[in-house]
Protein: Imidazole glycerol phosphate synthase subunit HisF
Organism: Syntrophus aciditrophicus
Amino acid sequence: MLSKRIIPCLDVRAGKLTKGIKFKDNIDIGDPVEAARQYYEQGADEIVFYDITASSDRRDIMVDIVRRVAEVIMIPFSVGGGIRTVEDMRRVILAGAEKISINSEAVKNPLLIAEGAKAFGSQCIVLGMDVKNVGLSDAIPTGYEIVIHGGRVYTGIDALWWAKEAERLGAGEICLNSIDADGTREGYEIELTSLVSTSVQIPVIASGGAGKPEHLLDVLTRGRADAALIASMVHYQTYTIKDIKTYLDAKGVKMRMFW
């Protein structure tokens, strides 16, 4: 049995660590470099860094911050936001990232997934999926729609279809974020996570809604996720990563314990 992963998420806006609820009302809460260092020391399995306004602002990702984060951690590091080309991917990898997360640009140019996988290997390419429950329709048969540009633009694309298509194109992992659950601390979107996790062969990271360790237990077992992204519950120091892993380990979830 493979170990489940706990992955703190650093949403960055204008160089500051930020957090919102359902992709709105973001507030700045600290320094992303210092947060990355703390989570690494606490036993995080990976770190995810998102420059959350790079795509909507049509600017390049903040490579200088990527480089500074990479200098203080020794665990896998995934970076997303404003990555439009294979050359953008190369710049971020050279700055210290092991994985590239593509979201809005992959929807607009799906071949970017295949090009990235060919250049760097599928293991480097993570498809970020921001998903909204819009109800069942002919166009959206699962009821879950892909939304891009930080929750601003609805695409008319069904989430399950897009997950399968991305896998076919060469994505090595999916980070599945529920807009409805994001920042609420009321639990992950289990139905969505289970739907995608059981329909693709690549790892799925659940994102959006973590508020207590029980939520991670639910999504890693009932939701069948391979990893869980966390933000608010550690950003606000409600829990440490050690607290979370100790709880999950006691419940029989296989974890990497670094202490």
